[in-house]
Specification:
Helices cover about 15% and strands about 45% of the residues. It is mainly β. The chain has a single domain, classed as Immunoglobulin-like (Sandwich), CATH 2.60.40.420. The chain binds dinuclear copper ion (CUA). Dinuclear copper ion (CUA) binds next to loops.
Length: about 150
Amino acid sequence: MFIMMPLWHIYGKQNLSNEAYRTTPQAYLAKAQAMVDQYTVRTETAANLPVVRPPPGSDVYLVARLWQWWPLLELEQGQSYRLHISSMDWQHGFSLQPVNINAQILPGYEMVLTVTPDTADSQTIICNEFCGLGHHNMTGKIYIVGGGQ
Ligand code: CUA
């Protein structure tokens, strides 16, 4: 229980009884692309990945694919978001660190978690389901910024 406490503290009243909906990779990717087109604030130079800052309270679409979590996200501390996740190809394991929230991600299913970052520390997404050659490099990022920045 000692280990669990920071998790619940950081994510407050988050209810991990997540929702899941049927979807298709094509339909899901279209929603993610629309969000990226509308809310990209910059790109990361190394991999030219978009960093997307959707409005507080909105639906956020994260794509899992070999071997990438796309796009990078930037969320506001203390605000809640509906984080959707689906896979384009294969089973992946969404694992958000250091808060240690985990979910199995499958193609054809759209998972929805409500997230409310309580600290300003960036969070890293890793894949904890073996998915082949690039598995160990399949990392993503959620930047957390203070309100009003
Ligand atoms: Cu994706 Cu391991």
